[in-house]
Amino acid sequence: MIIPQQNFARMLAKQSLTLQHGKTEVLQVNVGKLCNLTCVHCHVNAGPNRKEIMTRETIDRVLHWLAKSDIRAVDITGGAPEMVPDFRYFIERVKALDRHVIDRCNLTILLDPGHEDLAKFLAGHEVEVIASMPCYTAGNVNAQRGEGVFEASIKALQLLNSLGYGSDPALPLQLVYNPNGAFLPGPQAELEADYKRELKQHFGIVFNNLYTITNLPIARFASYLKHNDLLADYMMLLKEAFNPQTVEGLMCRNTINVSWTGEVFDCDFNQMLKMQWRDRDRGLYLWDINPATVENREILVGDHCFGCTAGAGSSCGGALV
């Protein structure tokens, strides 16, 4: 496990705040690092040449554990989770357990060869789609995610809309905004209004909600910051913007995060920093824990946590306050 800097822990103590796990409401499963894109802001270092993929055996162990819990939502992420060979198998089995499924989708994968019917599959199984869309203009999106990504994302959103996403209550479509640089997101409500106006006016696209998510200074985004001599300034920005009101709603308080091998973490960011749950000197896997006994477990923190508590806060569901 990486030993993180403890400025964040000291900040919590200074504010007389504690950060402990509450009732688990979400099982977030990172099924691997394989992706068809190589985005500047990626905290996973995902890309087309990554080999980390969750196996059928591990998926079955996750499903067996899930069936014995009362967790209602399974949040599937990656990489591009859709590229994992057993992605559809996983969703079918989770839905058979009558649980809500979320797919964190980069949109472009819906148009890639071999995935042409994926959008229909998602709609047919009433999977909520949370889609990366860093801006409503081509220049900003392509700069962050690669040339042509904006145009492909628009086509994918139009495809999802044609299936009922964004208008049918059973098919929620959420978009995600990440800043295109070393700064905090703007106000979520204002950005959502801008997105809805621009995407509807220019492309006929509708969606439910916009989530603003702060870029955390780890993995590829940390490399970008270091390369541009921005890391120290960005960390100072996050620390100075610390908002104690965000702590209550942090996603690590109601989420168990699982790696492609089954290891357990407080969040996907901790996973990338190898801050695994442990019992004495042994790393824990999902099937080692009882979801009913993790309440009040102390959450592992590091200075990257300033990213989730800066300004209006940041979580997998967007701003916190």
Helix/strand layout:
Layout (H helix, E strand, L loop, with lengths): L6 H8 L11 E5 L25 H12 L5 E5 L9 H10 L3 E6 L12 H7 L3 E5 L5 H8 L3 H14 L10 E5 L10 H16 L5 E4 L6 H9 L3 H10 L14 E4 L5 E2 L2 H5 L5 E2 L2 E2 L38
Task: Write out key terms for the chains shown.
TIM Barrel; 321 residues; 8-stranded mixed beta sheet; 10 strands; alpha/beta
CATH topology category name: TIM Barrel
Mean pLDDT across every amino acid position: 93
Provide the gyration radius in Å: 19 Å
Based on Cα principal axes, name the global outline. Answer: globular
Distance between the termini: 31 Å
Largest β-sheet summary: 8 strands, mixed
What is the CATH H-level superfamily? Aldolase class I
3D architecture notes:
The protein has 321 residues and is of the alpha/beta class. It has a single domain, classed as TIM Barrel, CATH 3.20.20.70. Helices cover 31% and strands 12% of the residues. The strands form two sheets. It has an eight-stranded mixed β-sheet. A hairpin with a 5-residue loop joins strand 7 and strand 8. The mean pLDDT is 93.
